Amino acid sequence: MPETTRELLTLGGWKELEFGPFRENVTIHWIRPFEADQPGVALLRYEAGASVPRHRHQGLETILVLDGVQSDEAGDYGRGSYIVNAPGTEHSVWSDIGCVVLIQWDRPVKILDDD
């Protein structure tokens, strides 16, 4: 396992980072914000019961679950799960117990349902 991955998964290296607002009960730590044609890379921290409404992926999205469980209509993804959402796919995301994920977006998502 690469050292960075080991530090994030095993040692919880993300726990000391500063997170800011993203959505209700979901906070973000930007590793690399979107710039021109460069993808965005961030850590998202979901509190227990937090969710992101249905959205469409306008580019490729990849996720590595670092802690907890992230869920969508296709299933539940625990620590160490690697998720790929192709351009054009749609889903909503939630975490019943809370989670932290490493996420990369090629392009921002389009929110379809926003309460």
Automatic annotation (TrEMBL):
Domain of life: Bacteria
Residue ranges of every copy of the ChrR-like cupin domain listed in the record: 15-103
Gene3D superfamilies for the chain: Jelly Rolls (2.60.120.10)
UniProt-recorded name of the protein: Anti-sigma factor ChrR (Cupin superfamily)
